[in-house]
Predict the structure.
Amino acid sequence: MASKRDKDGRYPETKILSKNFGVKDSWTLKVAKKNGAYKNLEKALKMAPADIIEEVKTSRVRGRGGAGFPTGVKWGFVPTESDKPKYLVLNADESEPGTFKDRYLMELDPHLVLEGCLICAYACGLSTIYIYVRGEYPKSQERLWGAIEEARKAGILGKSVMGSDFACEAYVHTGAGAYICGEETGMLESLEGKRGHPRIKPPFPAVEGAFGCPTVINNVETLAHVPCIIENGGQWFADMGIQPDPDNPRAMGSSGTKLMGLSGDIKTPGVWEFEFGITLRELIEQYGEGALDGRKVKAVIPGGLSMPVLTADELDVPMGFDALVKVGSGLGTATAIVMDDSRDMVEVCENIAHFFADESCGQCTPCREGCHWMEKIFARIQGGEGTPADLDLLERLFINIEGRTICALADAAVWPLRSIIRKFRHEFLAKMPGHEDAPASTETAGVGAS
Amino acid sequence: MGDAVNTIFINGTEYPFKPGQTVIQVAQENGIDIQHYCYHPGLSIAGNCRICMIEVEGNPQPQISCKLDCAPPPWIKEPLRVQTESEVAKQGREGTMEMLLVNHPLDCPICDQAGECHLQDYSYEVGQGQASTTTAKTKLPKNVPFGSKIVYDAERCIKCTLCVRFCEEITETNELSMQGRGDEEMVVMTSKGEFDTPYSMNIIDICPVGALTSRDFRFKSRLWFMDFANSIDTSSAKGVNIVTGGRNGTFLRIEPRYNASINDWWMADEGRVAYKYVNSPSRLETALVRDADGQFRVANWEDAISAAAEALRSNPGDILLDGGCTLEEMVLAKDLAGAMGKNAKFAAATGEGDGWLVTEEKGANAKGAELLEVARAKRAQAASVLVIEREEHVNASMREKSGAVVVFATDGEHVPESAEVVFPLPSWAEREGTLVNIDGLAQWMERNPAIGPNNLPVFVEILEDLIGELDDDYAWRGADGVRAEIAALPAFAKVALPWQTETPVGAGS
């Protein structure tokens, strides 16, 4: 891994998805074609669909939306023997706080996204592509619609995709700003015009998804990887990044590149593309240029808001699916939120709890009632009326909320909150009358998303 | 597929299951009670209340039993082993129970559901006994009308969505929906105005808590002061199974009772409020005999029976029966008519049906009358005996035209001018007997002793006394004897009679 760094110890960017970012008018078909757009689709259309799925399996590409499910395996779940129409729903709802990587792809290279979708649709036998775009992304919607129109006129989309027998249509569907609609089945409900209530599984979307038909749901970035996998082969992709651990079947490795981002208390927020393997500290120091002047990084949530927090001492961890799980956190969307030493962690918790309480769809009891309850407890501690018993109560609530609901929103609420109250316990005690002088906690082990 | 797993271990005991069954279903079939709110066997599975948690051995997290398939994943060849009372299971339910009460107003003392509230029951069973909440509860709308019959309280509501699913899946009218997010979520009406589905009040029954209450019943009585009886809805001929509820003589409530072959768990609103006349202030409570001066005077039963027999001897004629009379009553009425050399006829209204639980035929025992060969009365039917319970079956003009001298009436207002002797007729809820529904299913109707005036005579006994007065050779048979005769009739050879079967047909779970 060390070999990836240059002589100054800098971890290089690897621009594959992001190769056209910054190119003038990169979102137009004319410019995109000049840069190679759709030639991989043309290649894919000459391949057998099963071979494409095999190639994607070989690449070991894992879902980029946060869960890290192997994409090729997911495609393999779609029943081939089905007389129903089959759909692709592209999850472009990117509603995870601190996450804005898909937005770059949709705004700057919509044809790459569309090409990935078309290859997936061809490989899995899907007739229609629905791109579910977050309501707060008007420019992404505009660029995607533009790309669809251009592709349709150019014969890339429609009854005969690039002159082949394969027919496929694409539509952009706009969300209305609910976090829960980023959950894949909540998104399907929303797409169907219903309330964004996640569905109870089984049946899984691959069997019964949009409109009761088999449906593939992938993240924007995941499918944007597909054209280059077709171009260079699955093995080329698998050779990049972090290899699987042969001794641990759950450590499936982190192949290929990933768009990673930084936001929060950081000098240079942004999105960059790396091969998996850059450490969180390298990302923050080399690309984010560190904390603001006179400040120190205090805590980082490595991927969006929904992952356990890492303290300043824990940043030498490679950004990869398995490595972050090993230290009790998770890659999530790989867009880190940085908090510096000016941040009050009680306030941070109150803010996080408020977010999840506000976004809880209200369907399952533990999440509906629990998230608001947690928010009220944090508000009480923040108001100087907390006691150490509140922290014990929170720990008990975490147990009763995590893993007890239909979707993972409740887990996403618990993970950062639990890690913060364990790692920054002294800050909570400092706000409790009579406990102000409690020593700083050294307890950091055993905090996990498990 | 021959070696597919088809059993499941629940609490260490192996039970067979049918493909597609979930753990809660197999548990219930075998008498193992698992607490549940959002699960209803007649509706789709929502899996949102999270109270029905059980432990699946090998899984540290409790799982919801309403959604858990009894069949293990195909790669596992061993039956699932689940525990419903283990620490993991109990902790799961306890945790959910606490959440459910975080924002619950705990207004049981003024809540109509108290006594039949699953929140109360499950709190008692798995609750913590101590509240950990010190923060203010979320305030939500109360006393929200859902149409004219139902009142909704969003604070009591546990958002199980049973009512929403009922309107989507059973009536398919979609009047209700969820609105809002998080702990501000609540049920709302999707269309403005009336919630006028003829089956709307079923959502009151399926609501596991006091969120949906009946405008008709609310604040009338605490449940534990009431008596209940398993009866049959007599407002139409479908034979919908119900439970009557009364207190101190007052008929207070009708709720449906499960019967898979007739009404499942449901009933129409029409039948649910068809008890009002039973509480009429003009209910007859004593026998009346017309004096020489033409005025009615109160008579004791013996005097009234002799007077009635006298009137019938001098004025023999047909008997006109209310279409809700039981088989036993019809048989005896036929015999009474026979003693006069006449016939018994029945009168019953017809009206609109909905093809489901409301039939066009309104005579609850019209099919029974057909089997007993009791003919339907003409619109203007002369009769010497009139049995009238429901106004709609024998309307005022029919009553007056009948010229009946002996009248059995529930309500004093229904006594025609021609009456010489009047007996108070207990309402259907106060009588017991057998009804045959329109599909030929015979069902037992149980008497509710808490409904109606005290000490009313038993209708079938009066009928027998009258036959005895008119027929010197009459041998008293009693209701049981009459039932034995019915069972012996060729017309009933293929009818399963409820008192003959070990489990009465129509007995619900």
Chain A has 17 helices and eleven strands.
